[in-house]
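One example given next:
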Amino acid sequence: QRLGEGTDLVELDEDAVGDLAPQGIDSLLVARAQHEARAHIVPGYELLAKELIQIGESDKIANTIISRLESQEQSHEGNRTLTMGLQTLSKMMDTTDFNPSAKQVEQMGVLGTKCIRSSDSGVRKSAMEFCCLSLHSRIGDEQFWSLMGGADEDLKKLMTYYLKMKTTRQQ
């Protein structure tokens, strides 16, 4: 309940909260590590993250998320952070006018391919959706496959499957 009240504060002073959005997102990613997916507070974290990406500066938010995820260890708690971070990047790319820099695209590609190889199924699913749906839509086919050049053949087949599913859904 309290987290819902926090979102009302976002509506009251979007400018002030928007300046703090990167720190807020980072705090949510840290907090998310402490809770299982079915914990009652997790949807509140996701809702607040969604609101923060709408009012904050996308470039700074992306850098914050990328930095947090690049340094995240592959542990039970770390996988929760990776999953939420990838989902938040996906939402930001899908719902805002965020135009990532070449450096950010490179970092997101490395991060995505690393997470697709994770032993955690939630991280793999979030990474596949991030790479094949959000990132591909933003950067285009040619740059996407150039970025994913280091992926093995089985992974490329799976990515191709996801991309075809996306195309089929859109028609």
In short: The mean pLDDT is 88. The longest helix spans residues 76-95.
